[in-house]
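Exercise 7. Predict the joint structure of the components listed below.
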Amino acid sequence: MTMRKTAIAVLTMLLLSMCGVAQQYTTNTNATTVKLADNVYLIHGGGGNVTALIGDDAILLIDSMFPETAAGLDAALKSLSPKPVRYVINTHWHADHSGGNEYFGGRGATIVSSEPTRAWLASRGNDYRPNAKGVPMATAGLPVVAFRDGLDVHFSGERLQMLPLGTGHSDGDAGAFLTKARIAAIGDTYFGAFPPRNVLAVQSAMERFLAILPDDVQIVPGHGGVLRKQELVEYSTALKESIRVMQAAIASGKTLDQVRQEKLLGRFEKYSTPYMPLEKFTSNLFGELSDLQHR
Ligand SMILES: [Zn+2]
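Solution:
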């Protein structure tokens, strides 16, 4: 499978498991480590991608995998450095990205997230286990620092820029850019597929994120291998063009049936997935833009 298809397969599996359809939880991790820079690593296997920044006297993580795979993640980190994990930043609240919060928070790490992610975890948890849906996350795993419009984190000579990335994938997606290492983490906002909702917000957030990223940036998505900036630019452009085409169709009085029949967004079919096929994306975008026009 291509990297994109692998990422989509993983995502589909996770979505199914979060819906309670598949109940085979990962119980350990075969965490694999990829060196991205002198002190920055991508760790994958056993949940969403984790970006680890090894500082002078501690480690900062972006995302924390599942509850069951946090110990395996910790073991992978220990093979890199004996330093403690002092910060965990969540890109969003889904269990494969925030599930290890309690493990690391309970061992002294400060958790950081966007305000909507914190609100979700504090009120509903991460909806991981079907029999524990809506159960708030334990205090040890809750973000202590939460941001709305952005946040700079200074850690061991590195400056991380945190940016909110809209609500296309969760209720409070966030991206991180390590300005010195020139590495960005975008969570599941990008997994090579049409966003399920709030397309305008996702597109504008992504455009703002891309604007601060240099051309040679390495981008860590929520799942799958490292991306080049160009791949994200193409995705953002496809969303922008979809919005433009749909706005023009609505302005000319076309109905949803006409838009569907004419396959106006057909050239972006490559971002279609079983979870969000072109037809569904077309309907969602038509609805989103029609609603805006009627306000
Ligand atoms: Zn997710």
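Discussion. The pocket of zinc ion is lined by residues 92, 94, 97, 169, 188, 222 (CB under 6 Å).
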